[in-house]
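Researcher: Sequence recovery benchmark, item below. Answer with residues only.
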């Protein structure tokens, strides 16, 4: 068997078109332009490239975007003041503080300081709580992107054995939560594996849908999956440079061995990444609409 490739970049294009049309309509109906601020602390190359991609996509979709870059030694208090400034800026509907933050800054303090109405990452405890309860809120971008990828590719999650590898607050925990809920792209039987899981392969080989977000290059091989599995690879690991000097990226899944057994698999790059950015744009649009009750 050779797997179908789930091209997130193609699916994202369709959704971005829908968002761009809504951005134009909102300008015409209410004369507002959704605004996003991205705040980057330090100069981690991966974070810098993610933030640049977010701002670029915003521009293409007609969303106003502002990038704030602060030095790595910025005191926590200064970052909190920056967040407060944008909480009070009516041109800005969404605030994104790129993670991870430098070690001397308490991440929770910063995330809790963002106005929940502008929390387009869905990381504020108010939004996390609403998500867990199944209430309307900003959904975290990567988990939401994964649900959209599966839904728009026609893979049914209801009743499926979904196995997730990785328990981060950004991906593992929220995607597990969303997929077990009574909702579209939910109703799955969810197993959440992590670094202390005994016999990881026992679990991954049971998966109908396997989601890997562990941050370890090629940790899942063909021997770890069953025939016909649908694989979502969230990993982005830099393993060198291309001849053109660009970062050489691989996922958490060994694409070549797993594709021989899988029914479908996302590539890295071009799989989950573009969906994450697209869901951020969707949340920014939603944040702007909420300010006018649209
Ligand atoms: N770092 C890795 N993924 C994300 C994300 O979705 N949002 C933010 N703010 N930081 C990240």
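Model:
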């Amino acid at each position: 068997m050779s797997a179908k490739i789930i091209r997130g970049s193609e699916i994202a294009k369709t959704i971005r078109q829908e968002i761009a049309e809504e951005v134009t309509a909102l300008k015409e109906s209410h004369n507002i332009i959704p605004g996003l601020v991205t705040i980057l602390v330090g100069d981690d190359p991966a974070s810098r490239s993610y933030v640049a991609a977010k701002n670029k996509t915003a521009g293409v979709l007609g969303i106003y975007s502002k990038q704030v870059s602060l030095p790595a030694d910025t005191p926590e208090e200064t970052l909190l003041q920056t967040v407060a400034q944008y909480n009070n800026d009516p041109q800005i509907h969404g605030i994104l503080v790129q993670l991870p933050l430098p070690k001397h800054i308490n991440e929770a303090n910063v995330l809790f300081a963002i106005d929940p109405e502008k929390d387009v990452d869905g990381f504020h405890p108010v939004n996390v709580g609403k998500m867990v309860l199944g209430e309307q809120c900003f959904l975290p971008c990567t988990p939401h992107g994964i649900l959209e990828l599966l839904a728009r590719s026609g893979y049914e999650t209801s009743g499926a054995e979904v196995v997730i590898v990785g328990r981060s607050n950004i991906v593992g925990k929220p995607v597990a939560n969303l997929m077990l809920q009574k909702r579209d792209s939910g109703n799955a039987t969810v197993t959440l594996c992590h670094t202390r899981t005994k016999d990881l392969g026992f679990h991954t080989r049971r998966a109908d849908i396997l989601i890997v977000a562990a941050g370890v290059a090629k940790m899942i091989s063909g021997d770890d999956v069953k025939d016909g599995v649908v694989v979502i690879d969230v990993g982005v690991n830099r393993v060198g440079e291309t001849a053109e000097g660009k970062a050489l990226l691989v996922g958490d899944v060994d694409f070549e061995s797993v594709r021989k057994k899988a029914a479908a698999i996302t590539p890295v790059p071009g799989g989950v990444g573009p969906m994450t950015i697209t869901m951020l744009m969707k949340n920014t649009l939603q944040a702007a609409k909420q300010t006018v009750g649209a």
